[in-house]
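A reminder from the course coordinator: this example appears on the midterm review sheet, so study it carefully.

Given structure:
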């Protein structure tokens, strides 16, 4: 099978039209992205302890050339902006590390050291960024750590900039919005395996970098592949208007739950006239439902919090910066920027609701959803990471769920059985592929992808179908302005041509697992119970957590693990086994794959109860198929 296809004439024509209609003469973003540049990391490559490359910004050097026909010109522009790399000054006393991970790390100088905001994804990239800062600003200690929100690209590098010992010694407070720890841990543990597999498609981490491969992710270039970590917060921000002084730096907070993350906050530095917008206002339309999977976000409250930020901080700011992309300077410019971002999310929400109340379903609304010209022509509102199409469908899902109300869609066959019937009705695989090739030649790639998918799921060994679908996905990827759509299409083509490539990233780490509460540990275990294989089993165990001086009861019945803390007054049946162990031993035993015999535990009662409980747990599949059954 050929390695890749070339962009078709139809794709090239669409790119030419975009070049002629979008405001490419506006170069302000390039001025802003380069403003305050101090120094780059040379070379722009970061290695792990074992020598493996965890970050390589230099691999994107090809983006400095002329835009090829295999990349949407608007996405090419965005990726050129995102590869600006190094240490930048935002304003007096505030600096950013950009281009060393998907996200930015911001450093605010205090009286005795430096406060770090959002230490990237990996300890390796965070440490390299801090070293670059220190090389030019002095060897200042880290005297504060702030997490803007609960996604891993904003806390994963924590152990690269400070230590648990310094935090425990109160040398470095760790500040986060209320609810941060629950959401950060839950997202990376409960559905972490499935999210990590789909994230490999979303960020294109399996793709070669180049004009026919990965050119970026819209929000940044890609995710680093180093060691994620987590230091739990020591201080929670619970209310808008709450103030703190960290190492002599005054900070005023605005909590924004339910926006880009379930636990998130913006904050203002009044003495610097600088506003941090976390990930609530970046230089792209963001996701309301990220393609890797997540809870559906609320564009209505998102827009309201942006209004609140403008009202509280806009006229008191000379610069606004975020955890991705580059800052915007000047009070009038930043106010307009935030206002347009606000209008974008409000418009998506309100117009989707207007049309669903007229009886339209999500896919219909998304198909014809023009934005107001002032929004559509603002580069920072373009759909490089989120898209109008999948965000509108997400809003529909948030309010109406998966069912569109048509009884014909209430109980459809699952993908393989549906595919077999479609192919039979359409005259067999050969006839479907014959017609699909005609549709491909006509440029109807969306239809080709849909019908050839039936052939693949009905006959997964049909090489002609696999090849045609790979070609089709490439044309759809080449034509996409949205980086994550491009990465999904091109990764799908890669796996159709070369087989399942697995998942290159980690969905958890020892420090993240250590942050789990006892309740979250057993919640995670409950999600792995193979219910049908244990409907008739009844296993009751007590887990005495010696370092927390508590006893937690688990009861397997009807294929479900129910768990709760015991009290002295509980009138509960005698457990089959009582397991005495520390919380680290509990983590090692239940989530770390360590054998009970290798841990310092003591079991009273029937020791087979634990073995029988383990026997009903499934292991998640880190490399499940996506584009084939």
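Designed residues:
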């Amino acid at each position: 099978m050929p390695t890749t296809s070339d962009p078709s004439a139809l794709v090239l024509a669409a790119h030419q039209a975009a070049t002629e209609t979008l405001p490419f003469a506006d170069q302000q973003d390039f001025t802003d992205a380069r403003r305050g540049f101090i120094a780059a990391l040379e070379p722009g490559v970061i290695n792990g302890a074992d020598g493996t490359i965890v970050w390589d910004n230099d691999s994107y050097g090809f983006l400095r050339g002329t835009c090829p026909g295999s990349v949407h010109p608007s996405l090419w522009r965005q990726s050129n902006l995102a590869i600006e790399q190094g240490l930048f000054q935002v304003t007096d006393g505030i600096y950013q590390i950009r281009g060393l991970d998907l996200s930015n790390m911001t450093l605010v100088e205090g009286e005795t050291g430096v406060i770090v905001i959002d230490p990237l994804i990996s300890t390796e990239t965070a440490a390299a960024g801090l070293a670059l800062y220190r090389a030019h600003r002095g060897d200042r200690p880290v005297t504060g750590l702030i997490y803007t929100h609960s996604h891993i690209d904003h806390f994963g590098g924590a152990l690269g900039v400070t230590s648990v010992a310094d935090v425990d010694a109160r040398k470095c407070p760790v500040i986060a919005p209320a609810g941060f720890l629950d959401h950060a841990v839950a997202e990376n543990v409960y559905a972490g395996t499935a999210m990590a597999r789909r994230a490999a498609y979303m960020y294109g981490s399996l793709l070669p970098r180049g004009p026919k491969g990965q050119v970026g992710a819209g929000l940044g270039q890609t995710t680093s592949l180093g060691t994620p970590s987590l230091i739990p917060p020591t201080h929670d921000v619970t209310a808008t208007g709450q103030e703190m002084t960290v190492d002599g730096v005054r900070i005023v907070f605005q909590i924004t739950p339910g926006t880009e993350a379930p636990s998130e906050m913006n904050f203002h530095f009044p003495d610097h006239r600088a506003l941090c917008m976390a990930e609530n206002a970046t230089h792209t339309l963001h996701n309301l439902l990220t393609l890797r999977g997540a809870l559906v976000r609320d564009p209505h409250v998102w827009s309201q919090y942006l209004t609140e930020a403008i009202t509280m901080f806009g006229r008191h700011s000379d610069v606004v910066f975020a955890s991705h992309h580059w800052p915007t300077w000047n009070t009038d410019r930043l106010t307009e920027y935030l206002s347009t971002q606000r209008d974008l999310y409000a418009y998506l929400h309100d117009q989707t609701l207007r049309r669903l109340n007229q009886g339209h379903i999500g896919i219909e609304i998304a198909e014809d959803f023009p934005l107001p010209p002032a929004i559509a022509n603002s580069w920072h509102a373009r759909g490089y990471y989120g898209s109008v199409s999948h965000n509108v469908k997400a809003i529909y899902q948030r309010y109406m769920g998966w069912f569109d109300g048509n009884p014909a869609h209430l109980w459809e066959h699952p993908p393989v059985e549906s595919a077999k019937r479609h192919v039979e009705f359409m005259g067999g695989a050969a006839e479907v592929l014959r017609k699909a090739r005609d549709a491909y030649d006509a440029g109807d790639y969306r239809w080709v992808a849909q019908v050839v998918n039936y052939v693949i799921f009905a006959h997964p060994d049909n090489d002609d179908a696999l090849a045609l679908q790979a070609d089709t996905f490439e044309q759809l990827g080449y034509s996409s302005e949205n980086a994550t759509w491009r990465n999904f299409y091109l990764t799908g083509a890669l796996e159709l041509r070369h087989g399942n490539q697995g998942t290159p990233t980690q969905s958890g780490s020892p420090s993240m697992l250590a942050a789990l509460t006892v309740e979250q540990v057993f919640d995670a275990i409950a999600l792995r119970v193979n219910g049908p294989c244990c409907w008739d089993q009844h296993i009751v165990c007590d887990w005495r957590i010696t370092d927390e001086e508590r006893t937690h009861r688990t009861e397997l019945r009807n294929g479900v693990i129910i768990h709760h803390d015991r009290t002295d007054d509980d009138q509960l049946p005698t457990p089959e086994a009582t397991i005495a162990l520390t919380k680290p031993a509990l983590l090692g035993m239940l989530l770390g794959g360590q054998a009970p015999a290798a841990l310092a535990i003591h079991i009273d009662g029937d020791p087979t109860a634990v073995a029988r409980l383990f026997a009903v747990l499934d292991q998640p599949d880190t490399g499940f198929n996506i584009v084939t059954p």
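The longest strand covers residues 550-557. Residues 72 and 481 are 5 Å apart (CA to CA).
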